[in-house]
Design goal:
alpha+beta, elongated, six-stranded antiparallel β-sheet, 2 domains, two-stranded antiparallel ribbon, about 300 residues
């Protein structure tokens, strides 16, 4: 437990009690960067009034020195402190993920590319109708998986991504060209929910668990590509037309336009075109907010 705020005796010019209280709060958050604290816990442990504690935490949250979980009203240290301490990517952007999960009622995950695979580095929330996504899960970076990355990659990367599953069919190449163009324009990816999706993705995650992508993995990805209409194009997102959706994701892009990470919401429900667009826009805004924060504070160390 943190001791009640009691500044040491000053020598020379006196210390500022209000500043001491703010520092005490920051030190409390910094000692346990992965812990969410209630306002009552902060006030009790530091011996400050609820009114003072509320004013401090509201100000710190407004300046991003703390983040507030909108679902639980708990606080933890924020990206402005994180920029100094260099925590994990998960800690740096947890507040954005929590806010998105609360707003959408879904499980939200954060993933980055590592070599030939996409690695889930953090998850928050729950998806009542879909399988649980765990931190540490991997999927192979082969077509059609990883469209968030491929859409903003150069032609050589896109070609390697497509050919990783063998020589793709003419029909699949044409579909992917349209899909990648669509993704660049609207800023998000839609994964259809099909029986093939559930079975194939479960197998692909198991096969990619060690970070390697072998021939069996690529052939399975090709079978999925051949069996499923990939993504949704704008003309397919008609307001009164319903689609079964597994996930919606959006890229977090760096200043040079490259994709750093991906934010994904697990939907596993049937939505009409308007709802899919609205959800995609919300996920895209979250990804853009995270990208802007990275530009301000830098990434995790």
């Amino acid at each position: 437990m943190t001791s009640t705020v009691s500044p040491p005796e000053a020598q020379g010019q006196g210390l500022s009690p209000p500043t001491e209280r703010v520092i005490a709060v920051l030190e409390m958050l910094g000692r346990s960067p992965a812990t969410w604290f209630t306002l009552a816990e902060i006030c009790r442990d530091l011996g400050i009034s609820r009114g003072t504690g509320h004013a401090i935490m509201t100000t710190l949250a407004a300046r991003e020195w703390a983040i507030r979980n909108p679902r639980t009203a708990r606080y933890m240290w924020g990206p402005a402190i994180a920029a100094l301490g260099r925590p994990s990517e998960a800690q740096l952007h947890r507040g954005d993920l929590e806010e998105l999960a609360t707003a959408t009622g879904t499980q939200v995950s954060l993933a980055r590319r590592e070599g030939q695979t996409l690695l889930v580095i953090d998850t928050v929330g729950e998806c009542p109708s879909g399988p649980r996504i765990q931190s540490g899960m991997r999927t192979p970076f082969v077509a059609p998986i990883g469209r968030d990355y491929a859409a903003w990659s150069d032609s050589e990367v896109q070609k390697a991504w497509l050919q990783a599953i063998g020589r793709p069919s003419r029909q699949f190449e044409q579909r992917m060209a349209s899909v990648l163009t669509e993704i660049r324009q609207r800023g998000f990816v839609v994964e259809r929910l099909t029986p093939q999706y559930v079975r194939v993705y479960t197998a692909l995650r198991a096969l990619s668990a060690d970070g390697e992508v072998d021939q069996i993995t690529t052939q399975l990805a090709r079978a999925y590509a051949d069996l499923t209409a990939i993504d949704l194009l704008d003309e397919e997102l008609v307001d009164e037309t319903f689609h079964s959706v597994a996930t919606v994701s959006a890229p977090i892009r760096e200043a040079d336009g490259s994709v750093k990470m991906v934010v994904m919401v697990a939907v596993f429900a049937t939505l009409d075109g308007a709802a899919i667009r609205d959800l995609g826009e919300r996920v895209r805004r979250t990804a853009n907010d995270i990208g802007a924060r990275i530009a301000r504070y830098g990434g995790a160390g």
